[in-house]
User: Which sequence fits this backbone?
């Protein structure tokens, strides 16, 4: 099963409400970057709730529900309004789209009231800001008591800020439905490579390892755990081809070498890059290492405030590997703790984030969007380590979309190299 096959009930349901012609359908197209909803200047174009399953970056698999205008009239119109409002009961996050000329009225108050009664968060969207730029500074928030973002669905302006607001207001407990469940079949053997070295805590497994084991069991598969030294032996002794091998990032090289090429292979940190954030953005971030130059500033962002150990991954190993790769010195700043990334983000050429086991998906996505707004590539420890060790392509084998992102780079760089060669001749 791929991400696109995420069961309907497990997707984040985002529904758009508003009066006719407010631009609900246009906004769906702007959010997804595709022409998925029919738009026209005739009020009442959308007549029934239309649900579409899609991948909305960086949120992941979502169900977007377009609805008919809330100011429709006549017996049929009233029926449509009731149908639109009924969508609220299956909504995780509501967008209330407002045409600034028509402003806030009974329809808008009704949506906010009903959503409030059943605990659905609502984000207000002031649309058509290209026509009425002055509307952006009106105190909408005070009028309706919900957060507001001003956009132009037509010009696709303000859409990233709207996505940040979505991430901020998704329900706190929202997470992707599964860590590995969509990558395996019931009965599959999943081999987990867990080094027991001095970085491993005494007497227990760390949280991401526990969570993967739990997810494998929940999906009726078989979890087998080995240290990196025993992997080869375990694979030989199994008698069946494993459905997946998952390694700790510190054993990338050995585990990749000992896993047959036809066995899907990845790491705990890549699984969590997807579960806790957006794998594609982080793979994109790994590409930026190639453009780093001596003297560039790199931000190391850790979510927890652990006591750094002697050979600390974020403070010692990654800076060392990056300096070696760049062939010169780099300036590193380290921040730790949760909350937004620092305001001077644009000063950095790369953000290297920890695995985020102490952050929830919402917090991590918010940070990814912050980096995107500042135009700074962002990668995490595990994806970066795979890249620096030359095993990222192998470790992305279960994720075709991420492979495309990685390969794009290779293709483009090959072409650029050819161009340069051509010029030199
Ligand atoms: N100038 C401008 N026009 C917009 C914007 N967004 C939508 N429109 C226009 O407004 C009209 C209505 O847009 P729709 O997206 O169909 O609106 P809707 O809310 O889905 O309307 P119904 O389906 O009828 O309820 C179309 O002519 C759009 O091109 C915008 O940001 N700026
Ligand atoms: Mg519509």
Assistant:
């Amino acid at each position: 099963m791929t991400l696109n096959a995420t069961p309907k009930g497990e997707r984040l349901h985002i529904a758009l409400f508003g009066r006719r012609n407010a631009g609900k359908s246009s906004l769906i197209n702007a959010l997804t970057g595709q022409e998925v909803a029919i738009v026209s200047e005739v009020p009442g174009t959308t007549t029934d709730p239309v649900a579409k399953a899609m991948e909305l970056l960086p949120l992941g698999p979502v169900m977007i529900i377009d609805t008919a205008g809330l100011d429709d009239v006549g017996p049929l119109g009233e029926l449509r309004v009731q149908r639109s409002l009924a969508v609220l009961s299956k909504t995780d996050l509501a967008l209330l789209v407002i045409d600034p000329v028509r402003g806030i009225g009974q329809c808008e108050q009704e949506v906010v009231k009903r959503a409030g009664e059943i605990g659905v968060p609502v984000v207000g969207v002031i649309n058509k800001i290209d026509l009425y730029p002055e509307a952006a500074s009106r105190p909408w928030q005070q009028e309706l008591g919900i957060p507001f973002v001003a956009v132009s669905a037509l010009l696709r302006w303000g859409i990233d800020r709207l996505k940040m607001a979505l991430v901020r207001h998704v329900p706190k407990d929202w997470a992707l439905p599964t860590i590995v469940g969509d990558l395996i079949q019931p009965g599959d053997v999943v081999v987990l490579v867990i080094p027991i070295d001095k970085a491993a805590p005494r007497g227990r497994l760390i949280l991401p390892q526990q969570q993967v084991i739990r997810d494998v069991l929940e999906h009726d598969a078989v979890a087998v755990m080995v240290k990196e030294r025993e992997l080869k032996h375990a694979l030989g002794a199994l008698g069946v081809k494993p459905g997946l091998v998952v390694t700790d990032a510190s054993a990338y090289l050995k585990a990749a070498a000992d896993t047959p090429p036809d066995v899907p292979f990845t790491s705990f940190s890549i699984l969590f890059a997807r579960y806790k954030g957006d794998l594609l953005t982080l793979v994109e971030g790994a590409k930026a290492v190639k453009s780093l130059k001596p003297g560039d500033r790199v931000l190391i962002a850790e979510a927890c405030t652990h006591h750094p150990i002697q050979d600390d991954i974020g403070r010692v190993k990654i800076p060392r590997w990056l300096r070696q790769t760049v062939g010169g010195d780099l300036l590193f700043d380290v921040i730790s703790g949760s909350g937004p990334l620092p305001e001077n983000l644009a000063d950095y050429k790369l953000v290297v984030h920890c695995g985020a086991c102490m952050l929830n998906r919402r917090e991590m996505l918010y940070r990814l969007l912050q980096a995107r707004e500042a135009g700074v590539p962002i990668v995490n420890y595990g994806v970066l380590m795979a890249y620096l060790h030359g095993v990222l392509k192998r470790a992305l084998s279960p994720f075709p979309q991420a492979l495309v992102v990685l390969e794009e780079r290779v293709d483009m760089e090959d072409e650029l190299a050819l161009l340069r060669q051509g010029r030199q001749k």
Remarks:
- Confidence is low (pLDDT under 50) at residues 409-413.
- The chain has 15 helices and 14 strands.
- The chain has two domains: 8-169, 276-424.
